[in-house]
Amino acid sequence: MPTIVQLYILTAVGYIILSHSLRDILSHSLLKTVFLLALYAVGLRVVLGLNPELPYFLQASVFLAYALFAPGAYLYLRNFVYKTSFRHNDFIHVLPFLILCVYGVMASAMGVSLNDSLKEIWSFNSFYAYDSEVLMPLFLLIYCVTAFYFYRVLLLIKDAVAKGKVSIKLEEIAKVASLEVNAETEENAHQHLTISEERMKEMDVIVREVLEMKKPYLQQRYSLKDLAYDTQIPLHHLSAFINKHCGKNFNDFINEFRVIHCKEKIMKEEYKYKKLEAIAEESGFNNRNTFAIAFRKVTGVNPSEFLRNLKSTHYDKATTLADQEYFRQVG
After folding, report:
1. What is the rounded average pLDDT of the residues 228-240?
2. Which of 55, 93, 166, 271 has its CA 20 to 30 A from that of 320?
């Protein structure tokens, strides 16, 4: 397998692994397909190196699988980074696969034998002594396709990291560990800090005014330091206020505002044209698990149960047969 192809597979798959949990990978149909195509192409390439005498279809299917993997990985990463969905013109990315199919059919129709040449390139002991006139168009297509998608994926990764549109799993782990250490340090620091009740009430007005007017909690990764900057309240005073006056840590405090905002969006029936995960992201949550835990902590039920109960309530209030049929469909 050409070096540029190996680099592209390692880059695309490596980035996905670093930015997704195993649960996310298994729960997304396109992502599972992308991984299966990569495993098939790489795995069969190794098998063919050990036994180049396998049927011609299996040899050709390595190229076909890769012709679907290359654009599939790019399209998923594009949608993931920019929070977009598939468009009608995305069907053009199936073109490499179709060209390979046409190439194989035309080669067979003209009596060109691809089988022997393919056996030569799969052999680990071969020095690529294949018929260049037969396979050169095939390799040229693979090189061009790989170069195009490799370049696009590198731009996506660069843009995502530079603008903070996505998080790397390793950074998330480090951040969680850092937050735990900082939270413990802050808690120890303000245990001996005495703030008057009057000052607590004053901070309460300031904090809630900022949160309700500007809604900065809609920003993902909004931190205690950010809130201190927005309210102009010293960091240790703000930490003491949230822990003592509000009786919770900063994450629970800020997530409560996010959950309330999320509930408002759901009550406005935005779920009819948006996924629940998209509503959560718009409310400031950066991953599904945090959203589910925070939502249950605030409301007493998980998000899907809340939505199911809401739909059921709406269905009970529906008076016409048309309304009832609609709610049967969305439910």
Report:
1. 89
2. 271
